[in-house]
Records
---
Amino acid sequence: MKKTEVSQKKAVKKVRFELVTEPGREVFVAGSFNGWDPEQQPLKPHSKSGAYAATVILPEGTHEYKFIVDGNWQIDPNNPSQTPNGSGSVNNVLQV
C-alpha cells in the first residue's frame, strides 16, 4: 500500500488595517506576518482627513502587529487585544 501525502493548505483572509492620524503622514503596518519590516506594507491615505488603510492577505492564525507613523511605532487604538512584546511595550493581536 502506498502512502499519499495530503497537503493541508491554510486558509487566508483579506484583512483591512485602518488608522486615523494627521494628514500628510507616512504610515505602515508591520507584524509577525511580514517579518516586522517597518516599510514593507504602507497604508494609503484614502481621504484628506487623515484616514489611512491597507488590505493585507493573511494566513489563518494569530498575528501580532503595530503601526509605524513617521518612523514611530504605535499600537492600534481600535484593537484592545494586546500582548507584551519583550521590548517593554505591547503589540496588538489579531486572530484570522
---
Amino acid sequence: MSDVVICLLLVDAVVVVALLELAALVAWHVATGRGLAVADLVANLSAGLCLLAALRSVLSGSAWPLCALWLAGAGVAHALDLWRRTRAASKRPRPDGIPIARSSPLVP
C-alpha cells in the first residue's frame, strides 16, 4: 500500500475512535447526569473532526477550497467551544470568594 493510502486509513481510524468516544461520553452523561453536557462535547469535538477532514481532503488530493472550508469550520467550532467555556466560567463563583469583575479591566 502507498503511504497516502495508509495515512488516509489512519485518519479514518482516528475519526472512528473520536466518534466512539463521543458516543460513550454522551451515553455516560445521559445515564449518570455527570460529565460534560452533550453540547459542550459536540462543540469541542467538532473542531478536531473538521481538522481531520481538512487533512483527509489534502491527502486525497481534493481542491484547496474544500480544505479551506474544513479549516474554516474548525475555526468556527473552536470559537464556539471557547465562547461556551468562557460563559460557563464567568457564571462559576471563585473558590476564594472574591467576586468576579464583570467589566473590562481597561475601563476605570
---
Amino acid sequence: MPNLDTGCQEYRELSRRGFLRSSRAMVAQVAAASVPAWLPRISLAADASSRDTLIVVFLRGGMDSLSVVVPYGDPNYYASTLRPTIAIPPPGETNGAIDLDGFFGFAPAMGPLKEVYDAQQLAVLHAVASPDTTRSHFEAYDVIEYATPLAHDTLFTGWLARHLQTSPPIGTGLLRALAVNTVLPRTMSGAPATLPIPDPATFDFPGDAATITEARAVLEQLYATTLEPMSSAAQSTVDTIDLLNSIDFDHYTPSGGAVYAGNAFAQGLKSVAAIIKAEIGLEAAVVERGGWDTHSQQGAIDGGMANNMNLLASGLRAFWLDLQNYMDRVSLVVQTEFGRRADENSSLGSDHGYATAMFAMGGNINGGQVITDWTDGELLHPDLLYNGDSLDMRVDYRDVLAEILDKRLDSQAMTTIFPNFTPTYRGVANG
C-alpha cells in the first residue's frame, strides 16, 4: 500500500490478526490463475466488447468528506462546537467552497474537478459507508475491499476479483486487470490474469540488456517442463511483458490538452490511459493514493490535505481530458475506507469516523449531481450523528459499485460479487 500514513498509531501497531488477514489475502493472490470451486457455474455474456473498463481509485487513510465535499447548507457545519478552525467557508467568502448545487461545494483545492462535474460526467455521493462501522484501518480495508461487511473473516477474494472470475475476458484475456502498485490490493485478491505493476513502462524481463535474450530462452525452457500451474503462469508473465512492451509509454502523448503531474498517482493514471487507448483488452485497474489520515494539522485550505486534494483532482481531470474519445467506455470510482468525525480535535485535525464521500466518473455516469439523503438538510445535527460524533450512512457503497457493474460492465453474478446483499440503485449510471 503506497503512501500509508505513519502518524496513526494503528499503522504502527499492525496486530497479529491483521498480519494473518494479509497472509490470507496473499494466498488468494497466488491462486488467482484458477477459478475457485465455490463459484457458481453461470452462463457468461456472449459479447464482452461493450463493457466499460473500470478504474478504482482508492484513497487510503480515511478521507474527510466534510472538507472535500462541504455541506455548507447544513447550519450545523458551522456550529462553534463542531469545526471552529478547520471548516471550509461557504461560497463567496475567502477560501470558500466552490458551489455544486446550492447546498454542497468542493473545497477550493478540488477545483480542477468542477469542469468534469459541470460536464455532467462526475457524480458525487455523500454520506456513503458500509454497514460495518469499524474504525480500524485494516479491518475497514477487509470490509470495503472484500465487500463482506459483518462477515469479513469468511471470504478472502476481492469484489473486483469476483467480478472478473464470473465475466468473460475482453480480447485474449492475457492481462485482464492491473494494480499500479507493488502488491495486489484486497479488491483484486483472487482475480484471474491480474498483476501488480507499479510502472507499466518498466515492466520488463529482468537482467542485463546484453544477456536478456539468452536468459529469457533458458528460463522459458526451464518453466516449460515445470508442473502446472507454474508453467502456464510463467509463460503468461512473459507474454504479458511482450504485450506491455508493445506500448510506447516513453513517447506517449496525452490527448485533449491533458497534462499529468510528475507524482506517482498522476503517472499511474497516465499509464492506465495509455493502456486503454492501446486496446489490449484491459478490463480493470486500481490506482491508490495515501495520505488521508489527517489526525493533526489537517490543512484543508493551505496545508497537507489541500495538497492531497489538488493532487487527486488534477490527476483525475487530466485522465478525463486525455480519454475524452474513450469516456463512453470508461467508468471510474473513487472510494476510501471510512470518513472522519464531524468535530475537529485539539490538534486541528479529524479522527476516525464513519460515513464519507464517493465519486463516480465516466461518459455514462449521471454526473453533475450530489446523490445523498441529507435528512431535513441537517444530517450534522447532534441528534442525527452516528455514535454522537460522525456522519451517518445514507448510501451503502455497494449500491454504487453494483449499479456500475450491472449497467456498465454487464455483470451476470451480482449475488456472487456481493453476497447476502440486495443493492438499491441510486441513478449513478446509464445502461
